[in-house]
């Protein structure tokens, strides 16, 4: 993937934003378990960073996804995973379907203010009994006149406590599980919608996550994105951007694990010599950097294909899987070299260890990625091919 001067200008803008508007506040936000999303999103919106690949008619920049990838990669250099995750939910998880398939009226009401940073968005798909198995969701939206009446619950919803609207996947019919679902925009202040207590998580502590409950929540059918029954397909398409985003946003964070560990092990002496002088350590760090470069190459390849309009289901799944694999191994290996200091919560490597553990779980678990890849390779067991 070739980067232009425009790409590099965007990269500098995002890097400066991370250094000035995010990193100085990370410790405070991590302790608080939240960050001022509306305030930060407005600043991002003023720079055009929440609508990089969104239509110009609604305030976006109208650029292709390669520019979004630059934004996400630089965002990953933040000293925590929670804030970048919340931003990526807004740009790459809750709004792609809205931008691509919603009516003009819905785009005016929800997409445009989301791009300006005036509204915080959330994607409400996962449920207590349906995480990676999206087809198994139980939330229902029945028709009543010109409205939908929604009942059910969603779990592990990032941005839920601060969201202004949710992009909700619900069953709107009784047909096959891949053909009976619809994506519906639900404003957070709709009567009957309630947010549960914030979840106590291993990592991503600066992002707010909570369950969402729907008790006879009434919204107009006009709030549906795309055709009725097309929700599963639209969500699968939306997942492609989410998975590309997950891979891109991992790169700089993984590199920071390595660079911080190099610096620490160069200064830390054991038995009269820097720890870094141990061949097993500097060889491991070199291997890690090679793996991150492989992830970068795979992610760039997938993004280039995506911007060219190609089907990237395989490549996006591979990039997400590779990111998930490295998210488990690199922070774990690096933390080991920090010894007792790595076990302390106030070290960056410790935070990376906790935050990155979500990567192989969220947005489709590693095992789901492997299943998709196997299916597209034609190597699933015969009984599962249908």
From TrEMBL:
Alphabetized PROSITE patterns for the sequence: ACYL_COA_DH_1, ACYL_COA_DH_2
Cofactor(s) it depends on: FAD
SUPFAM superfamilies reported for this sequence: Acyl-CoA dehydrogenase C-terminal domain-like, Acyl-CoA dehydrogenase NM domain-like
InterPro entries with a match to the protein in the record: Acyl-CoA_dehydrogenase, Acyl-CoA_DH_CS, Acyl-CoA_Oxase/DH_mid-dom, Acyl-CoA_Oxase/DH_mid-dom_sf, AcylCo_DH-like_C, AcylCo_DH/oxidase_C, AcylCoA_DH/ox_N, AcylCoA_DH/ox_N_sf
Record has Transport as a keyword: no
UniProt record similarity statement: Belongs to the acyl-CoA dehydrogenase family.
Lineage of the species this protein comes from: Bacteria, Pseudomonadati, Pseudomonadota, Gammaproteobacteria, Cellvibrionales
Domain Acyl-CoA dehydrogenase/oxidase N-terminal: 4-118
Protein's recorded name: Citronellyl-CoA dehydrogenase
GN (gene name): atuD
Domain named Acyl-CoA dehydrogenase/oxidase C-terminal: residues: 229-375
Record key words, sorted: FAD, Flavoprotein, Oxidoreductase
Coiled-coil regions listed in the entry: none
Residues of the Acyl-CoA oxidase/dehydrogenase middle domain: 122-217
KW Isomerase (keyword) present: no
């Amino acid at each position: 993937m070739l980067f232009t001067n425009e790409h590099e200008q965007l990269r500098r803008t995002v890097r400066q934003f991370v250094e000035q508007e995010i990193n100085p506040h990370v410790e405070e936000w991590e302790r608080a378990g939240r960050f001022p999303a509306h305030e930060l999103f407005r600043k991002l919106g003023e720079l055009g960073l929440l609508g990089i690949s969104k239509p110009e008619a609604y305030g976006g920049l109208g650029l292709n996804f390669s520019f979004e990838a630059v934004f996400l990669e630089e965002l990953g250099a933040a000293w925590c995973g929670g804030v970048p995750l919340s931003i990526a939910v807004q740009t790459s998880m809750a709004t792609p379907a809205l931008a691509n398939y919603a009516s003009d009226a819905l785009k005016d009401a929800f997409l445009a203010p989301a791009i300006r940073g005036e509204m915080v968005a959330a994607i409400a798909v996962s449920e207590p009994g349906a995480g990676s198995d999206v087809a198994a969701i139980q939330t229902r939206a029945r028709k009543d006149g010109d409205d939908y009446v929604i009942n059910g619950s969603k779990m592990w919803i990032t941005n839920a406590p601060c969201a202004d609207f949710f992009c909700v996947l619900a069953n709107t019919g009784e047909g096959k599980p891949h053909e009976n679902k619809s994506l519906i925009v639900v404003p957070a202040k709709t009567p009957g919608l309630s947010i549960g207590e914030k979840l106590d998580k291993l990592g991503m502590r600066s992002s707010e996550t909570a369950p969402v409950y729907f008790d006879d929540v009434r919204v107009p059918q006009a709030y549906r994105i795309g055709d009725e029954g097309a929700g599963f397909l639209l969500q699968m398409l939306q997942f492609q951007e989410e998975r590309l985003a997950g891979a891109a946003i991992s790169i700089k964070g993984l590199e920071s694990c390595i660079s911080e560990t190099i610096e620490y092990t160069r200064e830390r002496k054991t038995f009269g010599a820097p720890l870094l002088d141990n061949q097993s350590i500097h060889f491991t760090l070199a291997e890690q950097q090679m793996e991150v470069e492989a992830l970068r190459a795979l992610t760039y390849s997938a993004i280039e294909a995506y911007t060219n309009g190609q089907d990237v289901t395989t490549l996006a799944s591979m990039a997400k899987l590779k990111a998930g694999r490295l998210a488990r191994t690199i922070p774990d290996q690096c933390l080991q070299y920090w010894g007792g200091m790595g076990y302390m919560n106030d070290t960056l490597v410790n935070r990376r260890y906790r935050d990155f553990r979500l990567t192989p779980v969220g947005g489709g678990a590693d095992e789901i990625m492997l299943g998709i890849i196997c299916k597209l390779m034609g190597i699933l067991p015969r009984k599962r091919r249908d």
